[in-house]
Structures are given as structure tokens and as C-alpha cells.
């Protein structure tokens, strides 16, 4: 195996059920519930379902075909596809024969694919469309070539093989089931290339034990929610480390049916169609949902608008104080029926948890949803940790924190404020990058090896509060240290500001690049003034400039999970920033 590896911090103990591998867990569940729906997806004008038993049979066929084409244990296989059942089948099949999956975003450029192919040494790729096949083939030409390229929705019959050919072959499911029971928990399962907010993506080496540890860590929470047999609406791409663990393995193994969303523009309708029990999304989506709800309220008559505002204000006071008076407590059940029940109904009516991850969730944004009766909880994680490290609980939701560490996760704060993590969920290292591995996995204050997260945090009353990225602090000309995450979060909480990046390293003060919300360009000054009123002198925005276009994945300013690439933005708009200091 290439890359730098680390021993686990304790001897691995099999997860509940005795599973030591992800395919082993999936096959055991397929044997137990062959008729139960596993996946739901939109195709041919309607919702289709894949049952557990059929899933297992398809995995066996794919595993046999890949073996016949020369894929052997340790080989890396790239997966480039939108969320669909073939993705899950291919993922499980690759792991079941001892090979390693390399999930990759469909939005990657040819250069991105070239880097990942060259770095991972992938011999094969499975893609969803002819267009993606062409892009990956072009990338492969610059990275040493591919032995096998499979397309789910079409092929040219020469260089590219069709998925239908994979499914047409025989598969020996009993033999494969017996084989996966012998897979050790420490075997490498996948390489997750971190999108990051800057720098070259690195391949995170996740063994089976890391993702199984994540499952064990949240098992008590999921069981208490009582969601077995209910749908999980999957919105994030399966190539994202969170969705790969949670959507492919964790929630299905807890008895939930995974439903693949058709995209943000269909989400409102899907809440009504699917009536999900759990939904996961990035903070940006919740910002959009809040804006839509507020825009709708503005169209209502005076009484409905006042009731909404009262429900919101009283909900916030229930969380933060001061305590509601007697009259307000008597009014609150009425507000529940007239306002909050209707809001919950818009989200399907049976939500047990709205989970936010991938970036910092502003407490004001989470407070908006919680006050209106929606259980929005924030979690925290990194690809390097399986990826879930901590999560708030719907019944114990401290929205200014990212919740307590999962069961089996050790957390401590280093002398410089960095959050350190240890446990079976931690990666083996970065593929082919021992220097980066040694930086991330190194001794902590006690001499033991810890994952150094790079995040500055506090650990209070058993809960983690992340305050910033360690490397992202801005040091001004006067030597003051300023948190860009704090300032950008406050700016984007203003309705007039859609996106924001602040700068000021080595400069006399802080400046900002602002993307105005639709129709709000003229009001940016007032929004900045409101934010400045809440900041210390050294943190205040001295000058700012509006940008003509939003940051997006297409222009290289956002990661596929909608995080702003600060380094890329600062480099792209270096001239505009320099002009603010003239």
C-alpha cells in the first residue's frame, strides 16, 4: 500500500452485529431484510425503488465483472457520478473485492481529475455520462492512462464499457458474502480527496473501521430518533465525505430508506412528496430557505405577518431568555398551531432532524429555524475523521456549539487552542504524502498521536465550539489577530449580502469583498454599518467593494460543497483588494 499509515489508538472491536467491513455490514442487512426498500431515485418520469436484496445481487455481479477485468485488491477505482443507485452498487462492489474507491465530484475540471488520477494511481474509472467519460479520458491521457473506463448511461463500445454489460454478467453472491466477512477493519476502503478552501486536494485514507466507528458513534442518537423505515432525503453529492459515510452506509444500516433529491430547485416539492425524517444540507441552503420564507411572509396580510414574527421572537426567547411571561406561555401553544405547525408542514410534517454540515452554521440562522419548530442541528467533522466528530442533539441543542464528541471520540484542546481528536474514526494518513500526514497526525500534549484538526476551538461542558481555522487568522499591520470566519459570518447574516470574503493580512485594517443579494447593491453600505456596530475597533470593515458576479463552483471560487475558497478569491481579486488600501 502506498502512503503513510498510522496504528489505531486502541485495538479495534467489531461494531454491533460483528461487522468489520462496510460490505459485510451491507450484505448482512440485505440477508436480513431482502424486500425492504433501500434506495429511492427519480427515473423515467417517476420515483423508482431498489430493495436490499436486489442491491446485493447487483453488487455481486459488479464485483465479478470487475475481477474478470483484472481489478485486484489494492487497486484504486475512481467513481464520478451524480447520486444514483449505481453509485452505491459500484462503491460496495469495489470494496468487496478488496479494491479502493476514489469518490470524485462531477464538477471537477479536467485538471482536477488529472491530479487525482495521477496522485491515486487509479487503474479504472466508473462515470455516469458520456460527457464525464470524455472529461475523465482527457484527464487520464495526461496522467498515464486508464485500463478500464465504464459509463453508466452510454458508451462508444471501444474505449468505454457500458454498465449494462456489467449487470448482464453472473455473480456469486454467497461466495462474495463469505469473502467480505474476512475483510479486516483496518483495510483501506476509500480515498477521499479533500476539496479544501485552498491548495492541492489530498487523498484522505479511510479504512473500514473509521466509517464503522462513525456509525457506532451516532447509533444511540439515531435509535432514539426512531426513524427506522422512514426516508432520508439525500441532498449532498455522494462524493462528499459526509454523504459517502452517512448516506451510503450509516443511515441505510439504521433502517432508513435513502431518497436522492433531484436538486435544490426541486427541494420544496420533495419535502411534500417524500416527507423525510432526516435531511442534511450545507448552511448556504438553509440561508436560501430562510430568505424564501421571509419573502413569503412579506406578502401576507398584517395579522399573519405579526403572528409569524411573534412565533419567531418567542421561540428565540425560549432558547436564549429572558423567560416568557405567563401571558406569553399561554399564547405559545396557539402560535404552535397557527404558525409553527404550518412551517413544519412545509417541510413534510415528520422531520426529526435537519442536519447542517460542511461549513460553519451561523447561530442566528439556526435560531430562526429552531424558533419556528424545525429541529436544525449542527454537526462538525472532517474528511480525516470518518468524517463525523460531533453533533448536537435535537433534544439538547446548543446552537452556539457543534455539540458533544461522538461516542468513542476523544477530544482535547492544545495550548495554542487547536482542537485535537483521537479514536478509531481517524484516518490512516494522506495518500502518497508522508509530510502532510506527519503534520496532521502527531503527538499531542500527552505524547500520544492525535489528529490535529487545524481548527481553533473551545471544549466546555462536554461540547465543542469551533471559533476559526488556525491558519486563516488575519494578522494586521498593528499585530492584531482577527477571525475572518467571524466577520464573514456576520456579513452574510445580513439579508443584503449573499457572499463575503474579508482581507487584511499585513495591512492597517480589514476590508471586504461583497456579493450583494438580488436587488440589494445599493443597500450594502447600511448592512456593513450594522455589522460594524457589533464589532471591536480592530475588527471593523474599513472599506469594501461590491463584486459583479457570485462565487460559484464553475468559476472556481466555491468548493463542490459550497464553501468559499478564500485563497482563490483573494488571489483572483488581488487588484480590487489593493485598490481598497490606496
Automatic annotation (TrEMBL):
Give yes or no: UniProt keyword ATP-binding: yes
Q: What organism is recorded for this protein? A: Dankookia rubra
Q: Which GO terms describe its cellular component?
A: membrane
Name of the molecule in the record:
Long-chain fatty acid--CoA ligase
| Keyword line | ATP-binding, Ligase, Nucleotide-binding
Gene3D superfamilies per the record?
3.30.300.30, N-terminal domain of ligase-like
Q: Which PANTHER family match?
A: AMP-BINDING DOMAIN-CONTAINING PROTEIN-RELATED, LONG-CHAIN-FATTY-ACID--COA LIGASE
* Annotated AMP-dependent synthetase/ligase domain residues: 30-431
**Recorded superkingdom:** Bacteria
Annotated GO MF terms: ATP binding; long-chain fatty acid-CoA ligase activity
Catalytic reaction annotation: a long-chain fatty acid + ATP + CoA = a long-chain fatty acyl-CoA + AMP + diphosphate
Amino acid at each position: 500500500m502506498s502512503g503513510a499509515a498510522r496504528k489505531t489508538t486502541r485495538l479495534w472491536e467489531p461494531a454491533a452485529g460483528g461487522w468489520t467491513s462496510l460490505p459485510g455490514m451491507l450484505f448482512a442487512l440485505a440477508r436480513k431484510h431482502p424486500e425492504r426498500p433501500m434506495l429511492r431515485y427519480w427515473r423515467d418520469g417517476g420515483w423508482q425503488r431498489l430493495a436490499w436484496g436486489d442491491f446485493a445481487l447487483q453488487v455481486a455481479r459488479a464485483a465479478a465483472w470487475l475481477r474478470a477485468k483484472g481489478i485486484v485488491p489494492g487497486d484504486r477505482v475512481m467513481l464520478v457520478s451524480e447520486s444514483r443507485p449505481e453509485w452505491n452498487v459500484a462503491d460496495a462492489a469495489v470494496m468487496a473485492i478488496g479494491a479502493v474507491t476514489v469518490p470524485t465530484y462531477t464538477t471537477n475540471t479536467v485538471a482536477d481529475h488529472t491530479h487525482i488520477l495521477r496522485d491515486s494511481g487509479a487503474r479504472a474509472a466508473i462515470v455516469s455520462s458520456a460527457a464525464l467519460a470524455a472529461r475523465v479520458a482527457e484527464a487520464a491521457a495526461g496522467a498515464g492512462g486508464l485500463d478500464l473506463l465504464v459509463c453508466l448511461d452510454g458508451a462508444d463500445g471501444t474505449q468505454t464499457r457500458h454498465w449494462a454489460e456489467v449487470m448482464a454478467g453472473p455473480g456469486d453472491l454467497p461466495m462474495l458474502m463469505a469473502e467480505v466477512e474476512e475483510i479486516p477493519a483496518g483495510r483501506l476502503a476509500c480515498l477521499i480527496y479533500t476539496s479544501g478552501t485552498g491548495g492541492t486536494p489530498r487523498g484522505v485514507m479511510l479504512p473500514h473501521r473509521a466509517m464503522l466507528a462513525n456509525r457506532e458513534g451516532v447509533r444511540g442518537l439515531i435509535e432514539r430518533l426512531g426513524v427506522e423505515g422512514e426516508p432520508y432525503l439525500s441532498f449532498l453529492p455522494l462524493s462528499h465525505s459526509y454523504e459517502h459515510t452517512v448516506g451510503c452506509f450509516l443511515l441505510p444500516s439504521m433502517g432508513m430508506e435513502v431518497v436522492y433529491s433531484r436538486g435544490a430547485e426541486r427541494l420544496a416539492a420533495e419535502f411534500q412528496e417524500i416527507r423525510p425524517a432526516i435531511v442534511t444540507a450545507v448552511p448556504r441552503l438553509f440561508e436560501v430557505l430562510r430568505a424564501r420564507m421571509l419573502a413569503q411572509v412579506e406578502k401576507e396580510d398584517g395579522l399573519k405577518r405579526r403572528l409569524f414574527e411573534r412565533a419567531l421572537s418567542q421561540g428565540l426567547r425560549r432558547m436564549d431568555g429572558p423567560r416568557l411571561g405567563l401571558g406569553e406561555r399561554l399564547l405559545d401553544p396557539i402560535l404552535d398551531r397557527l404558525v409553527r405547525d404550518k412551517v413544519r408542514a412545509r417541510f413534510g410534517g415528520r422531520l426529526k432532524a435537519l442536519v447542517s454540515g460542511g461549513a460553519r452554521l451561523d447561530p442566528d440562522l439556526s435560531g430562526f429555524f429552531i424558533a419556528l419548530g424545525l429541529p436544525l442541528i449542527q454537526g462538525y467533522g472532517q474528511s480525516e475523521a470518518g468524517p463525523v466528530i460531533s453533533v448536537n442533539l435535537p433534544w439538547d441543542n446548543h446552537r452556539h456549539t457543534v455539540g458533544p464528541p461522538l461516542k468513542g471520540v476523544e477530544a482535547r484542546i492544545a495550548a495554542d487552542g487547536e482542537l485535537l481528536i483521537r479514536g478509531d474514526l481517524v484516518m490512516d494518513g494522506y495518500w502518497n504524502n508522508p509530510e502532510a500526514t506527519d503534520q496532521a497526525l502527531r503527538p499531542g500534549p500527552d505524547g500520544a498521536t492525535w489528529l490535529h484538526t487545524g481548527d481553533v476551538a473551545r471544549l466546555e461542558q462536554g461540547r465543542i465550539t469551533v471559533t476559526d481555522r488556525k491558519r486563516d487568522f488575519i494578522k494586521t499591520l498593528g499585530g492584531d489577530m482577527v477571525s475572518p470566519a467571524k466577520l464573514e459570518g456576520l456579513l452574510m447574516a445580513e439579508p443584503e449580502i449573499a457572499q463575503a470574503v474579508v482581507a487584511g493580512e499585513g495591512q492597517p485594517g480589514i476590508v471586504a469583498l461583497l456579493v450583494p443579494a438580488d436587488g440589494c447593491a445599493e443597500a450594502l453600505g447600511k448592512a456593513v454599518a450594522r455589522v460594524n456596530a457589533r464589532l471591536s475597533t480592530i475588527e471593523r470593515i474599513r472599506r469594501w467593494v461590491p463584486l459583479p458576479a457570485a462565487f460559484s463552483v464553475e468559476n472556481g471560487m466555491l468548493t463542490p460543497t459550497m464553501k468559499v475558497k478564500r485563497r482563490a478569491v483573494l488571489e483572483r481579486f488581488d487588484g480590487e483588494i489593493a485598490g481598497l488600501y490606496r
